[in-house]
Every structure is written in structure tokens, then in C-alpha cells.
Amino acid sequence: MLFGASACAGAAGAASANHAETSHDYSTVISTEAGAVRGTLAASTRLFQGVPYAAPPTGPLRWASPRRTASWSGIRDATKPGNRCAQAEGLIDKASNTEDCLYLNVTTPRHSSARKLPVMVWIHGNGFINGAGSLYDAQRLASTGNVIVVTPNYRLGIFGFLAHPALDHGAARHRSGNFGLEDQQAALRWVQRNASAFGGDRANVTIFGESAGGTSACSHLAAPGSAGLFHKAILQSAECTGRKWSPGPPTWFPLPRTEREQHGLDVASKLGCSNVRTAAACLRAKPVEELAKWSDVGLGSGPTTGGGVLPLSPQKAFATGRFNRVPIIQGTTRDEHRLFTAAIEVATGKQTTDAGYQDEMHTLFGPTDAAQILARYPSDHFHSAGEALSTVVTDWAWACPVLDRDRALSARVPVYAYEFSDENAPWFTTLPKPNFPTGAFHGGELQYLFDDEQLPGPATTAQLRLANQMMRYWTQFAHTSNPNGHNLPKWSPFKAGEHVQSLAPNAIGSADLAQEHRCTFWASIGN
User: Quick check: is 336 catalytic?
Assistant: First the structure.
């Protein structure tokens, strides 16, 4: 929504008009490169929502690299979030049929003595098929840590990650398959051009993200086009190595172009667009509602490696040293996969049985390795077969790969490694609890950094203290490239063979990830 032109004549007029307004009005009107925006003043923060950072990717710009947003006159209302990107309804996510969605939100402290503040750009997760930047209220983080937090949307599912030869080049500056990552790069370029208007330092930008957002951050470390757009990275529960822990379409870790393109061709054929010569026009003519359902069913979503935005997979880039070398915080949650098992059980209406657990092991690993795994992780050692399955996948697909990545990255850049370990992390308000303890589940740490719409937040005094400590670790890292600060438990840089920082209420200390998650055993199993 735009206020009338009489409010001021363009961005330059807005800047001069600010001086005639009250201090309250002045603090909520900012002149960006495209025009002025008016945000909201809260007790300890300023909040600017729904600020466009790129042109709407609609019509001929569907499956195009992002373009600069058009300028506007007057003062644009920035008191409400922008549209969520097109997505099907999820277990805990609302559907959206809107492609006009390339908006971001900026949260700043209300007062700051610093001349230029660090900027933290949050890349949201949820499998590259759901979510929005506006779901993460960053006011506590911004005010506690004296930082500016930017939370962009980016194209999801088939709209953001369809790899198809008919979509290569043309409207795409690169090859297809990574339009969502290109959106994120566009948001980072917007930060470079506009950070100073909000009091931010364009030379001190930290990207951070969880789940698919962590995978995105992993990808930007490997993407040549992201070089110089950020100066630090925080990877939370990032899937960067491609261990596929479920049957079906490719999921949200980076995969080779040949595999992504084959699925893209298959989906295009099912949509009636099998002719490669006409596929681009055919797909762009499809209604958004018809396409959105393919984001989750039959396509899978995630970065495409091999040419274009990601010439190398993150795994190969890290192993060979060909990545953007910046200081890194990286970690996981202790019980990552319990969330996924619980969600699958809710979606199917079936609890994991002993027989189902054994079948899953044979499907994932084959009979010989499955026998060893079942002997090492017998279901009667857990509360349920679902918990046993969750522990296997947590150790094999999450904890041990991140430890390998800690070793590879720390050989070339400073790495601060952690494990979020609150065994009583509050569970989702809209998702039934499973028949096993949810523990430190995937995404459980988000409520310690943000006010999250889907999680109730820390409840006990000890959990609130942990939240404060984690926010200070994260923001101190944004300020100085080192998470250590006054009255914080010491956090040493990771070195091969050393432990990681365990983040638990009243128990911040050391965790032996290799022993806790049986990584020597998993090394003998292989991939």
C-alpha cells in the first residue's frame, strides 16, 4: 500500500521532509534506493516489513533471475509483512498462491550508540517448500545483540528450484534450478546497497539460517556469485552433503544437475509440457495453483549443483578449499530426526512399528549393513521404534556429517561448532507429540533466537537464560567474528579431534559428538 504523493515527492523529498517531522516519525521513515518506507516503532526496536527487494517474479519473469524492483513515489507502508511465496499447505504452514513475494523485513534496535551496526541476514528453512521470513520475529535478537536483522522471502518449491533445460539461460542469467538461491543473492545485494540507510554496516554482514536456510548458507559458501556479499556465516542444522534418508523425490540438500533435471523433465511431462522446445512457454502458462502442488509431491526441492550458480557441490568445495572463506558457526541439534519421524507419523496416521523400523533399515542400507545397525540400535533400548529410527538417522545423516564438515572447514577458516542439547525444548503448538520424548529436535533452537509463530518459546528460567546466552553468542559473532563475550561461557574454536560446544540450560560445556553419535561405527558403514 502506498500513501498519497502529497506526503512527499519521492525518496529525496522524504529525506528532507523527515527533518520537519517529530522524532517519532523521523525514526520510522527510511529512504531506500527505490523510495521511502514507513515502519513501526516498538519499545526497543524499529520494524520495517514487506519491503520489496526485487521485481515480482510473475508472467515472463517466472523462472527468471531476479530483477531490480521498480521505484515508487511517496512513502510506502512498511508496517505489514509482504506476501508469502507460492507454496502448498503443509502440516503447520499455510498455503499461498502468490508469486509476487520477493519482500524482506528489517528489524533494528530503537536506539544505538554505534555508528554502523552489523547486519544479520536470516534465511528461513522448511525444506525449500514452505515458510517466510516474516515468521521469525527478530526483535529480541536485534535489541539484545545491537544488530540489524533482515529476513527475506525467496521463491520456493517448483518456482524456486525447478531444473529444466528449457529454462536455462534466456530470462535466467545462469542455468535453471537455483532461482531461490539467486533471490537470496539479490536480497544480499539489496543489503549492500541499503544497509547504511538503516544504520547498518555493509562491510559486516552475517548470513545465518536453519534447515533449508542452513543448506542455503552452505550453498552461498560454495557459490562464486555470493563472494563479497557476506563476511560470516552461521549454519544451523544444514544438510550440505546429500545423505538421502527417505525414499521418493530428491529432497532439500544439494544434488547433481543430472538428477534434478531428470525430475524436472518428469514433472513437466506430467504437467503436459513434455516437448522441450515449448516447455518453457507451456510451464509459464500453467496456473500457480496447479504448479504449487508439485513443489512437494513428485519434485522435491533444493539446490542444483554443476554449472550455473553452483559449479561445485558444497561438499566438494569444502574438501578442495574452493569456497568463500569466512568465519563460521556451525551446529546441529542433539535429536534432529525426532521431528521428522513425528511429522511422518502425523501425516500418515501410523506410528512406527518394530517391523516398520526394520524395513526402513533394509531400504536405506541393504541387508548386511541393516543387520549391524539393528544390532547397534535395537528398538527395545528406546521408548519406541520411532525413537530408535530417529536416533539412527540423527547419527548417520546429521551429526556425523556435520562433524566431518567441521573438520574440513576448520582446516581453512575459524569454525565454532555446537550442539543444541536442551532435552526439554518446547514442542510445536500445532503438532501432536509422538510416543517418544521429542528431545532437542530439529528446529528446537529457533525459539531461543526468535519469537517463532509455531513454537511457544523458552519456558523455564534456565531456558530463558540459555536463550539470552545463545542470542549473545550469535550477535557477538556478528560483531567480531568470535562468539565469546563478557560473562559468556568460553567457546573455543573447533580443531579436529576436539569436542563441540554443548548448548543446554544450566549446562553449556563440552560435547563429544563422535562418541555421542557413534561416528566411528558409521564410518565403517559408509554412505
Answer: yes
Q: Which residues make Cβ contacts (< 8 Å) with residue 284, sequence separation at least 6?
A: 59, 60, 62, 63
Q: Is 442 marked active-site? A: yes
Q: Is 481 annotated in the active site?
A: no
Q: Which of 183, 220, 194 is nearest to 102 (CA)?
A: 183
CA-wise closest residue to 366 among 526, 520, 523: 526
Question: What is the rounded distance in angstroms from the CA atom of residue 258 to the CA atom of residue 265?
Answer: 10
The verdict on pTM exceeding 0.85 is yes
Residue-wise pLDDT for 76-85, tens only, equals: 999 999 999 9
- 273-295, pLDDT tens digit by residue? 999 999 999 999 999 999 988 86
Active-site annotation holder among 211, 219, 226, 313: 211
Dist. CA 161–CA 264, nearest whole Å: 9
The CA distance from 225 to 217, in Å, is 13
Catalytic residue among 174, 231, 263, 442: 442
- The answer to whether 156 touches 243, Cβ cutoff 8 Å, is no
Q: What is the pLDDT of residues 215-255, one digit of tens each?
A: 999 999 999 999 999 999 999 999 997 665 554 444 678 99
Catalytic-labelled residue, pool 210, 261, 336, 387: 336
